[in-house]
């Protein structure tokens, strides 16, 4: 059956252009010149795609987007906005449009948009119970995780930029991968980049690419992250770490959907969906002048919060089991199990490093355990050695404990601190956050424990 598209525009010229382009792509088209006509058409026919202009004689295209979300939630709708009117574009994405195109309508952009809409509307429903095993999965049954799954499935169906907030190790990258894997871009690359790890001087060429020889040290061609992710998703992890000059360039690239590789005079079209994440408070960074507000609104069209593990403790047993399976597969070892007591201990632990910390604890415990049963002592958790940031005193657990408890506490503390430093590439501010202590407190501990 030929897919049918509904085109809503009051300007005859644009209608004709859209109709010609879409029929050349093999679609059947139907046109409406007002909101009212469009509503009638939607009520009496079914469509694979709707394209609507923003300004219509009897109202705004965005109203149609909202109607469609309610009455035809599976119908992808894109909005045509005036050039440079970013607010309209952002508003329509927020209301549920899967994408937008600016006037004057660029035919190749339009074609890409139509193809991606058709893939979305023909894509099978997001995998629920029996998902393919290579699909990234979220473990957990708490309402918070159920809600997260629902959001992911919904966001996978549009193209709007998504910003993921959550503490370190909560699964932000996993969420980003799931949005990608369940959407129309799944067959195209998912390209993650840790914005805090790219050296400032290489940033522009890392993002936008360069040709061999375009600057000293450019020994080979580099397509850059945008082109590597073309057709797919670019995941900007720790986006709050981007230096301001790069924020300006990134904003341009996202707005114009064009990039200019270092040393090139021509701009190149790119089609990437941007998903960003951070564990930092971007609003606060904006207030401190370290993050551009315009970029924030561009990235943050839809925001999604990933809960901390301590706020969904009921998931700890299932997660521990999933992670133990993963660990045993990784090392080709028999799967370990947690003793009742060990499980109880884990459930009451605070996990400042969230799921990643749980995974590390289990990995170490599986290696330390005498057999396939992990006991509380194998967890090497020192909850009493966790430092209260408000109180820089020594932990007071020594009284009723064996004589060498101080040493073993210090050792455990040292191991946790070194682990945090390694995981944050020796960024002390982030290491302190990961450990749930203040920067001052970390400095004090480094000195006390003789860590250089
Ligand atoms: N719900 C979950 N089910 C199973 N595994 C999970 C879940 N959430 C996270 N993980 C695992 O936890 C680890 C950390 O997740 P991820 O890297 O996505 O976190 P993050 O929030 O992006 O971390 P960071 O802020 O440090 O970049 C990964 O190994 C991931 O597979």
TrEMBL record:
Listed GO biological process terms: phosphorelay signal transduction system; regulation of DNA-templated transcription
Ranges for domain Sigma-54 factor interaction: 138-367
Record-level Gene Ontology MF annotations: ATP binding; sequence-specific DNA binding
CDD domains listed in its UniProt record: AAA
4-aspartylphosphate: residues carrying this PTM: 53
Keyword Transcription tagged: yes
SUPFAM superfamilies for the chain: CheY-like, Homeodomain-like, P-loop containing nucleoside triphosphate hydrolases
Residues covered by the Response regulatory domain: 4-118
Region (Disordered): 382-406
Domain of life: Bacteria
The keyword Ribonucleoprotein appears for this protein: no
Keyword terms: ATP-binding, DNA-binding, Nucleotide-binding, Phosphoprotein, Transcription, Transcription regulation
InterPro entries per the UniProt record, alphabetical: AAA+_ATPase (IPR003593), AAA_lid_NorR (IPR058031), CheY-like_superfamily (IPR011006), Homeodomain-like_sf (IPR009057), HTH_Fis (IPR002197), P-loop_NTPase (IPR027417), Sig_transdc_resp-reg_receiver (IPR001789), Sigma_54_int (IPR002078)
Record-linked PANTHER family: RESPONSE REGULATOR PROTEIN PILR (PTHR32071:SF100), TRANSCRIPTIONAL REGULATORY PROTEIN (PTHR32071)
Protein name per UniProt: Two-component response regulator PilR
Species, as recorded: Oceanococcus atlanticus
Species classification: Bacteria, Pseudomonadati, Pseudomonadota, Gammaproteobacteria, Chromatiales
């Amino acid at each position: 059956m030929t897919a049918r598209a509904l085109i809503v525009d009051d300007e005859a010229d644009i209608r004709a252009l859209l109709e010609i382009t879409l029929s050349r792509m093999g679609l059947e088209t139907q046109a409406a010149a007002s909101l009212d006509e469009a509503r009638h058409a939607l009520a009496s026919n079914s469509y694979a795609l709707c394209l609507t202009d923003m300004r219509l004689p009897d109202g705004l295209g965005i109203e149609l987007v909202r109607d469609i979300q309610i009455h035809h939630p599976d119908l992808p709708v894109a909005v045509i906005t005036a050039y440079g009117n970013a607010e309209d574009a952002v508003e329509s994405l927020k209301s549920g449009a899967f994408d937008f195109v600016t006037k004057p309508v660029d035919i190749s952009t339009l074609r890409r948009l139509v193809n991606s809409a058709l893939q979305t509307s023909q894509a099978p429903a997001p995998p629920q119970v029996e998902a393919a095993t290579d699909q990234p999965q979220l473990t957990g049954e708490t309402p918070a995780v159920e809600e997260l799954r629902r959001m992911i499935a919904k966001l996978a169906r549009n193209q709007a930029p998504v910003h993921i907030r959550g503490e370190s190790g909560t699964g932000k990258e996993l969420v980003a991968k799931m949005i990608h894997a369940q959407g129309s871009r799944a067959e195209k690359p998912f390209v993650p980049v840790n914005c805090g790890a790219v050296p400032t001087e290489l940033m522009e060429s890392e993002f936008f690419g360069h040709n061999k020889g375009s600057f000293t040290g450019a020994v080979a061609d580099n397509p850059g992250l945008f082109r590597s992710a073309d057709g797919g998703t670019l995941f900007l992890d720790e986006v709050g770490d981007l230096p301001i000059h790069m924020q300006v360039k990134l904003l341009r690239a996202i707005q114009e959907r064009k990039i200019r590789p270092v040393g090139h005079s021509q701009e190149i079209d790119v089609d990437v969906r941007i998903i960003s994440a951070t564990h930092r408070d971007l609003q606060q960074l904006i207030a401190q002048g370290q993050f551009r507000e315009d970029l924030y609104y561009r990235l943050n069209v839809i925001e999604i919060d990933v809960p901390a593990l301590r706020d969904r403790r009921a998931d700890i047993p299932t997660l521990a089991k999933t992670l133990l399976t993963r660990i045993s597969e990784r090392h080709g070892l028999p799967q370990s199990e947690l003793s009742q007591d060990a499980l109880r201990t884990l459930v009451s632990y605070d996990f400042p490093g969230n799921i990643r910390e749980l995974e590390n604890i289990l990995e170490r415990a599986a290696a330390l355990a005498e057999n396939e049963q992990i006991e509380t002592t194998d967890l090497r958790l020192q909850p009493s050695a966790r430092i209260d940031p408000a109180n820089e005193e020594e932990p007071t657990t020594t009284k009723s404990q064996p004589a060498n408890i101080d040493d073993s506490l210090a050792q455990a503390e040292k191991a946790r601190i070194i682990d945090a430093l390694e995981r944050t590439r020796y960024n002390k501010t982030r290491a302190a956050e990961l450990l749930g202590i203040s920067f001052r407190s970390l400095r004090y501990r480094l000195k006390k424990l003789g860590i250089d």
